[in-house]
Amino acid sequence: AKELGGDNYKFYTRAMREQLGERVQIESALRRALERHEFVLYYQPQVDIGTGRIVGMEALIRWQHPEMGMVAPARFIPLAEETGMILQMGAWVLRSACQQLRTWQCEGRRNLRVAVNVSARQMAEQGFVGSVADTLGEAGIEPCCLELELTESLVMNDVEHAVTVMHELKRLGVKLAIDDFGTGYSSLAHLKRFAIDVLKIDQAFVRDLTVDPDDAAIVTTIIALAANLNLEVISEGVETLDQLSFLREHGCHQMQGYYFSRPVPAVAFGAVLAENEAQ
Ligand code: C2E
Ligand code: CA
Ligand code: CA
Ligand code: CA
């Protein structure tokens, strides 16, 4: 089934709400989906263009709905957050991604890491850090092979709590990335207090990079900021060779986007890995 893009998200969220009715029904639909194993993870490679190697992948959830077909996360994540179902869903995502990573590591890709999106509700939950530690232990994954992607708005939601949790996660040894960097409201003063490792440049700035001088300026500034703060930097939404070349010239060597691969199911990602290995 065709996936629907971000522009349609509000409309489809409303349509789904009408279709599914009240909050309780949405919640039970999401719970049923979990029980019936209707959620799947897709993986998108993160490439170091210096070496050409796939260094990791981002896990992205999909809902294989029996009637609606493949549902994009923009259509159900907001509902899952609203109802609190994001907690169980997020735990499932983390567990599945770690187990899948373990499988690929056992097949020989030792240095591979996985990036997992974290929602505000998960971050706010008591015992989140402990559950991350447990999940890593059960899957047999080194903490440094897990990267948690946090958004600025998530962090700004409750800065003091977020800073505490980030430092606990850092102590555990997991890597932290700020997702969609530049689109949120965090100030540079806050950034200094965040125990993060990676800035992830939002695809909104990458899209018109080669034609819009403002976007080019923003991107080069973020890359310089990351370098000065000793952070890694990765660009998302890289679709063209021109974008890749610009980013490389300006010092961003980690990239993710359709230019390399769309997000694909685990089996297909295994083939992407094998192909990358053979290069
Ligand atoms: P995100 O974390 O910013 O993820 C990147 C989105 O950009 C993904 O959309 C991905 O498919 C898409 N993308 C990747 N490369 C390109 C490209 O070259 N061009 C364009 N135009 N798009 C590209 P997706 O998979 O639909 O996910 C949308 C959002 O849903 C994610 O944005 C993330 O915020 C959320 N999400 C996805 N999976 C999870 C999850 O497991 N947990 C949570 N809490 N949120 C999730
Ligand atoms: Ca992300
Ligand atoms: Ca992002
Ligand atoms: Ca984004």
TrEMBL record:
Q: Where is it located? A: Membrane
Task: Report the protein name in the record.
Answer: EAL domain-containing protein
EAL domain location: 23-277
